[in-house]
Automatic annotation (TrEMBL):
Claim: ATP-binding is one of the keywords in the record: yes
A Pfam family assignment: ATP_bind_1
PANTHER family, per the entry: ATP/GTP-BINDING PROTEIN-RELATED (PTHR42708), GLIDING MOTILITY PROTEIN MGLA (PTHR42708:SF1)
Record-linked SUPFAM superfamilies: P-loop containing nucleoside triphosphate hydrolases
InterPro entries, A to Z: Gliding_Motility_GTPase (IPR052705), Gpn (IPR004130), P-loop_NTPase (IPR027417)
Protein name as catalogued: ATP-binding protein
Single GO MF annotation: ATP binding
UniProt xrefs under Gene3D superfamilies: P-loop containing nucleotide triphosphate hydrolases
Superkingdom of the source species: Bacteria
Length: 205
C-alpha cells in the first residue's frame, strides 16, 4: 500500500487524496486494539488470540483483569479526519515477543501514537525509545483507566523525559472523539516536524 499524496484520476482530478499511515503503539494491554476499534469507520481488522495459561507468567494483566485476548500481528482501521485526509491506523502487538513485527509495521509511517497507562508507565518506555531512535514523530496518549490516578500531561512528559514539542494528550481509548484528538495532535506534530526538516536553517551572517 502506498501512503502520501496520490492523484485520484480523472473523475476527481481537482482533489488530491492524502492517505497517512499512523502507528498505534504502547505496552501490553494499554488499549491499542480498543482505540483502533473505537475510532475506525470500517470494521477493524484484528488479529486477537486468547491469552493462555502458558503465557500467564509474562502476560501481566494487572489493572486489565478482564482482558482475555492479545494482538499477535496487528490491528488495522481507517478514519477520515476531513474530506481528502484519511488516516490508516496500524496497531502494534504489545508483547515483547512480537517486536520483530515492528519494523515492518513502521515502514512508511508518518507518525505514531504511544499509548500509556500511568499505573505502568514503564511499559511504554520501549515504544518511546523506538520512535525517538528512528526519528518518527509521535504523540503520547495517556489512556485514563478508571481507578488510575490522573496526572497532568506535564508530569507524564517529565516522567518520560520527552521534549517539549512532543504532544501529551489525556484520552479514553474507548471514546471516538477523545481518540480523534490524539490522532489530530500526532498528525499536526508530524507535519510541523516535516516542515522543520525541509526548511533550511538561516545561514549565519
Ligand atoms: N476501563 C477502561 N478499560 C479499557 C480502556 N481501554 C481498554 N480497556 C480495556 O483494557 C483491556 C485491554 O485493551 P486492548 O485494547 O486489548 O489492549 P491492547 O493494548 O491492544 O493489548 P495487546 O494487544 O495485548 O498489547 C480490554 O479489556 C479493554 O476493554 C479504557 O480506556 N478504560
Ligand atoms: Mg491489541
Amino acid at each position: 500500500m502506498d501512503f502520501g499524496r496520490s492523484e485520484t484520476g480523472p473523475a476527481n482530478s481537482e482533489q488530491d487524496l492524502v492517505a497517512l499511515k499512523i502507528l498505534i503503539a504502547g505496552g501490553f494491554g494499554v488499549g491499542k486494539t480498543t482505540l483502533v476499534g473505537a475510532v475506525s469507520e470500517i470494521r477493524p481488522l484484528r488479529t486477537e488470540e486468547a491469552l493462555s495459561a502458558a503465557g500467564r507468567p509474562v502476560d501481566d494483566t494487572t489493572g486489565v483483569e478482564q482482558k482475555k485476548t492479545t494482538t499477535v500481528a496487528m490491528d488495522f482501521g481507517r478514519i477520515t479526519l476531513r474530506e481528502g485526509l484519511v488516516l490508516y491506523l496500524f496497531g502494534t502487538p504489545g508483547q515483547d515477543r512480537f517486536w520483530f513485527l515492528w519494523d515492518e509495521l513502521a515502514t512508511g509511517a508518518l507518525g505514531a501514537v504511544v499509548l500509556a497507562d500511568t499505573r505502568r508507565l514503564e511499559d511504554c518506555f520501549a515504544a518511546v525509545d523506538y520512535f525517538e531512535r528512528r526519528g518518527i514523530p509521535f504523540a503520547v496518549g495517556v489512556n485514563c483507566f478508571e481507578g488510575a490516578r490522573t496526572f497532568p500531561p506535564q508530569a507524564v512528559r517529565d516522567a518520560l523525559d520527552l521534549s517539549d514539542s512532543v504532544p501529551v494528550v489525556l484520552c479514553d481509548a474507548r471514546d471516538r472523539e477523545s481518540t480523534k484528538e490524539v490522532l489530530i495532535s500526532v498528525v499536526e506534530h508530524a507535519l510541523e516536524a516535516s516542515v522543520r526538516r525541509r526548511t533550511p536553517e538561516p545561514s549565519a551572517p
